[in-house]
Amino acid sequence: MSNQYKNSINIVRLLKRYMSLALILGIIIILLFVFRKQWMSSIGDLFKPAPVLIDETPILVKEINELAQLCTISVYSEVVADTVAIEKKSAGELLLPDFSGFSGLPVKGRRLVLVGRGRVIAGTDLKKLQSSDIIVQGDSVSLTIPRAEILDAIMNPSDFDIFSEIGKWEPDAVTAVKVKARTRMINEALEQQVLEKADARSRMLIENFLLSVGFRKVSVRIV
Amino acid sequence: MRRMSPFFIILLFAISCKSSPSAGIEVLALKEMNELVTVEYVVNKIIRANDDKTWYKPGDRKILMTCQATLKAGVDFSLIAPENIVVDGKQISLVLPRATLFSVNIKPEDIKMEYEEVGVFRSGFTAAERDVLAAQAQRQIQQSVDSLGILATAETNASLFVSNLLRKMGYRQVSIRFDVEPIQKLN
């Protein structure tokens, strides 16, 4: 009877010890959950690489060009461009594990995938206007303007996201992919009839301008 | 230990749970404009950086690149109100909006890598890292607009172009002035 009593006391003690341990763990978990943002960010900050900042260097003006470009339409776009280079594996490389997605094959590969955002600006180059393109008779004016063209295709360094970069890529190869992305953006804009839309808008804007400066009859031709 | 495992699972869950940032949806579209670009500045800049500030990375690495940017500025004609144009016979008076910077364009082919020095324990700059550095140069160029004097040149050119056009259209006296308030704008 006394042995049974002792056993039950031991069990109660053991349970109490586990209960207190569980309580402490529970408090720790609650604290971690509540303060996880602060703690995790401070630990993360400690191992975060310091940002690489460029030096303040002078800006040299190379050219100044006088323009008269009437920008009438801009098309915002996002495109993907990629490139893959496949080479034969050397005897040594065949024995090593390959994690590049070419495992088990006698070739190795490098891959570069990037996303580029940018805008294509279309409009009319009014610098091409000749004196003979303007005919005025009393309150009538006739103007002949050149066809719309792509005036700018802007895809800056801050507009690119490198989605995947496997292997070492030389700067020239990366530039080639970026140029491919920009060309694709221009082609997409052309497919959206950006030039036709720019022509129509240039005509409308010039007509409105001529009416606002006092002409009653206005004719704008595009050649 | 078997009894403890649910606690560890909860602990791991508590640590690994990260609040995801709300993703903004960008709308890409076609935009109508009415901008007269009157000047283009082509500028050169050296991009120089030294990566030696991270305490746990032994050795350093340096990079030297050059870039060429094209800045375009002009006048936004959509801001001209009917009351900004006064016609009196062969005399015309126009109030144009102040010139603004329309674009900064750094073409990928205009960024050249000139030199790279990488320590034994470091790896070279990746394409993404080079882009980050070039983006900083882009910002520095954008911030230098005032010191370059591009807006003043854009206003002079806009005034010349519009007055020449109006003279060709028969106006004998053309008066052009600019609005008082400058507008800061860059798409």
Supply the number of structural domains of chain A: 2
Termini separation of chain B: 61 Å
Q: What is the arithmetic mean of pLDDT of chain B?
A: 84
Main sheet: strands, sense, barrel of chain A:
4 strands, antiparallel
Q: Give the radius of gyration of chain B.
A: 27 Å
Shape, principal axes of CA atoms of chain B = rod-shaped
Give the radius of gyration of chain A.
35 Å
The number of helices of chain A is 4
Helix content of chain A: 40-55%
Poorly predicted runs of 5 or more residues of chain A: none
Distance between the termini of chain A: 114 Å
N-to-C SSE string of chain A, H for helix and E for strand:
HEHEEEEEHHE
- Residue fraction in strands of chain B: 35-45%
Compact summary:
Chain A is of the alpha+beta class and 223 residues long. Chain A is built from four helices and seven strands, in the order αβαβββββααβ.
Describe how the helices and strands are arranged.
The complex is a heterodimer of chains A (223) and B (187).
Chain A: H1 2-46, E1 59-88, H2 91-95, E2 107-125, E3 134-137, E4 140-145, E5 149-154, E6 160-166, H3 171-191, H4 194-212, E7 217-222
Parallel strand pairs in A: 4-7
Antiparallel strand pairs in A: 1-2, 2-5, 2-6, 3-4
Chain B: H1 5-16, E1 30-51, E2 61-76, E3 85-88, E4 91-96, E5 100-105, E6 111-118, H2 127-143, H3 145-148, H4 150-168, E7 173-178
Parallel strand pairs in B: 4-7
Antiparallel strand pairs in B: 1-2, 2-5, 2-6, 3-4
